[in-house]
Design brief:
The protein is α/β, with parallel strands linked by helices. It has a single domain (3-471), classed as 3-Layer(aba) Sandwich (Alkaline Phosphatase, subunit A). The protein is 29% helix and 14% strand. The strands form five sheets. The chain has a nine-stranded mixed β-sheet with strand order 1-7-6-8-2-9-12-5-13, with helices on both faces. Strands 3-4 form a two-stranded antiparallel ribbon. Strands 10-11 form a two-stranded antiparallel sheet. The chain is globular.
Length: 473
Amino acid sequence: MTLSYRMFDHSSLLGTPNRREVLRAGSIGLFGMSMPQLFAAQAAAAEAAAAPRAKARSCILLFMWGGPGHQDTWDLKPDAPAEIRGEFKPISTNVPGIQICEHFPQLASRTDKLAIVRSMTHSDVNHLTATHYLLTGQAPPPVDNLRMDWPHIGAVLSRLGRGRGPLPPFISMRPKIENTVPRFVEQSHGQSAGWLGPTWDPLTIDADPSKANYRVGEFALREGVSNHRLSERRTLLQSLENRLQHVHASESLQVMSQHYDRAYDLLTSAVGGSAFDLSQEPTAIRDRYGRHPHGQSVLQARRLIEQGVPLVTVFWPNDGVKNVSVYWDTHSKEFIDHKTRLMPPADQAFSALLDDLSDRGMLEDTLLVWTGEFGRTPKIGQRNSDAGAGADGRDHWPNCFTSVLAGGGIRGGMVYGASDRQAAYPASDPVHPVDLVATIYQQLGVPRGLEMRDRLNRPFVICPGRPIRDLVA
């Protein structure tokens, strides 16, 4: 299990000896880990901004990494030639006039809660950079440097001081399954705080929550460390902090001391461990989401926003299948993979989340976004990237694809925009990622035209897009 939360090394500001060296020399790190760094993202609140009234308090972003075939999921073309329409049939939903794929039967009975955007479009065929469009709203930077990226939506919320309670305000679930397939999602752009700086990066959880031994170790006391021992360590640490502050008079030291205080508060509260303890969920609920990595990650996301986390990204996991296609990147076996290993768990988890949030009275103030980085080629076997496609697969296609929203003040039971007869290009109301992200920001109460400054103090408008009015209830 890998858990990371990167931030600036403040010790370089303190002179010699630095605080880290003192702690290492004494072997008295508060938790034996870097947990206090988890709280940098909530500690620095941004300058107050005149924000619109938020309709959503939190957001769960379900990212179908790899690029789902829109014409095989949400936007079927039953009247098109066979090489375009593929093998799947559309089925009616609980909204007259809206049809989706037969392999989304549970979502078909919940379409009244969904806004299906069938006219998404951009121009990037590369997985690693196309993600940047959907996670930030902006085009990827011209250089392959993650620190030059625009900030993820969650990083902006972190910088604005969003969130309540001791948990980090921005968390990414990226379940890692042991296999030999390259894990490209780790290299994709747009996942971090980018030029805002690593202080606002997400807490990234790679552990597989479907496993019986799932544990986010930073949020629990180590075995053999009692609350009393923890309290003694905290007292000793505070004494060292006071001495260092007297010597250095460093503001950064005071800030880091606050992080340690918050870390202590979390470990001694009921929030930290319980938020990540899926065994507290009823068996029926866990079964409803699905006992697979994606389903349990989505359930984990619900538990986190329930504890006040503003944004959780759930990346589709690499399921370990050693096929030509991994994730939703179906260069071959498009229809086999969609109907067996991709659509059933996606259908189950998304529908369970809709029901669960609705039952808990949380759907109205929780925005859900289901999307990939692009769609797939109109024709089966069509080549549109260096990867190409087999006779039973579809290649990358950013020119037209589908994203879906629900909750958080979004109108349900609707389709926005349309693709052409071949699902190749928008036929009406094209939606660029910058406008989709602007809609997300609007629902979360982030003001249009908001400027933030990078580490060189240069101002940038975070999202220059226009919210899609028709999507808002």
